[in-house]
Amino acid sequence: MQQQGMGIGARERHALIILNSYRKLIGKPLLVTNADKSAAEQLFEAPIAVLSHGTQQDPVLNYGNRTALGLWEMDETAFTAMASKHTAEPMIQEERQRFLEAVAAKGYIDDYSGVRIAASGKRFRIEEAVVWNLYDEAGGYYGQAAAFARYTRL
């Protein structure tokens, strides 16, 4: 499946930036990958939720894998048009901003939990999420990503 606004090469590059930044900052792989499939395909099909946003002043989501899209109950077009802050309930956005600033300073956080809201208004609590900075091949800041396997529908 082609990510909205990204060609095949750009999609693969984005997946590799997510995977390589995780490995470099955390010291272990996000996924055990298989050389028979592209990184983009494996990341999209992963059983854990993975999402990322860009470097804008008010960051916009630029990636969500199948698991994340299902949790937020959106297709790729809607998901990648949403400001990252809208993944959280409005009353906790200030807390979310402080958290993102902490990630920016340290490079990653590996124990985040918080309530998120799907397009339908249903809420779910993510648990033990890892949030990390993304860096491109030249070491330039590229945005932030998050991944989590545990969540509870509320």
Plain-language structure description:
By secondary structure, the chain is of the alpha+beta class. It has one domain (8-153): PAS domain (Beta-Lactamase, 2-Layer Sandwich). It has 5 helices and 6 strands, in the order H-H-E-E-H-H-H-E-E-E-E. The protein has helices spanning 8-26, 39-45, 66-72, 76-79, 93-106, and strands at residues 49-53, 61-64, 108-117, 123-135, 141-148, 150-153. Strands 1, 2, 3, 4, 5 and 6 form a 6-stranded antiparallel β-sheet that branches. The radius of gyration is 14 Å and the shape is globular. The termini are far apart.
Q: Please write the CATH class name.
A: Alpha Beta
Please indicate the percent range of residues in DSSP E strands (runs of 2 or more): 25-35%
How many alpha or pi helices? 5
Under the CATH scheme, which architecture would be assigned?
A: 2-Layer Sandwich
Protein structure class: alpha+beta
Helix content: 25-40%
Describe the biggest sheet?
A: 6 strands, antiparallel
Total domains = 1
Number of strands: 6
Gyration radius over CA: 14 Å
CATH superfamily: PAS domain
Low-confidence stretches: 1-5
Rounded average pLDDT? 90
Q: How far from one another are the termini?
A: 30 Å
What best-fitting shape do the alpha-carbon axes yield? Answer: globular
Under CATH, the topology can be stated as Beta-Lactamase
Q: What is the element string, with H for helices and E for strands?
A: HHEEHHHEEEE
Domain MEKHLA: 13-152
Protein name: MEKHLA domain-containing protein
InterPro entries: MEKHLA
Tell me the layout of helices and strands.
Layout lengths: L7 H19 L12 H7 L3 E5 L7 E4 L1 H7 L3 H4 L13 H14 L1 E10 L5 E13 L5 E8 L1 E4 L1
Antiparallel strand pairs: 1-2, 1-5, 3-4, 4-5, 4-6
